[in-house]
Design goal:
two-stranded antiparallel sheet
């Protein structure tokens, strides 16, 4: 049986992987007015922060009361606790819903709630998302990636793109594109 590959619409940027890094890349590109598609193999966003149940947002400070990380990382930290408990110290805007474990700009959060909030965050930032979609191969012309082949319930599709960002966590797209990778 021959499986047909259907060509889909072109995007300025395709991000493969809907973890925190992929979400950050997709939203950044969309805020710069790019037409963005985010491809996620799971049925929810967040990667290890949600599916992996790693429910601690790492410190955005240096341990000496100085914030050193800002931007989308801080936006996502705030979103992770917007509708549930936090363990942020008061000096970092904590709400005392849960006792802080240290004095750092970090917090515990609910992976389930964070996953739901991330869906809204992506859509409000004009990023199109396809869930339950495997990005199987990059389409290369020489050393230039021209898009990706995906597989999902719709079948096999080709999404052309000007830029493809591999945020898979294991560099599977880069590896399949021929980029040297190490274990």
């Amino acid at each position: 049986m021959e499986i047909k590959t259907i060509q889909k619409e072109e995007y300025d940027v395709i991000v493969v992987g809907g973890g925190i890094a992929g979400i950050s890349a997709a939203v950044t590109a969309a805020r710069m007015k790019a037409k963005v598609l985010l491809l996620e193999k799971q049925v929810n966003l967040g990667g290890l922060a949600t599916n992996g149940l790693i429910s601690w947002y790492e410190p955005l400070c240096d341990g000496n009361n100085k914030q050193i990380v800002f931007g989308i990382a801080e936006e996502l930290l705030r979103l992770s606790v917007k509708y549930c408990f936090d363990s942020l110290p008061k000096k970092w805007g904590g709400t005392d819903k849960s006792a802080p474990r240290n004095d750092r700009y970090s917090t515990r959060f609910s992976p389930t709630v964070f996953s739901l909030v991330l869906d809204r965050f992506i859509t409000e930032n004009n990023v199109k998302i396809l869930f339950d979609t495997y990005c199987t191969y990059p389409v290369m012309e020489g050393n230039v990636c021209k898009g990706v082949i995906t597989e999902n319930v719709d079948g096999r599709s080709f999404f052309p793109a000007k830029i493809v960002i591999d945020a898979t966590g294991d560099a599977s797209i880069m590896y399949r594109a021929g980029v040297p990778c190490r274990d």
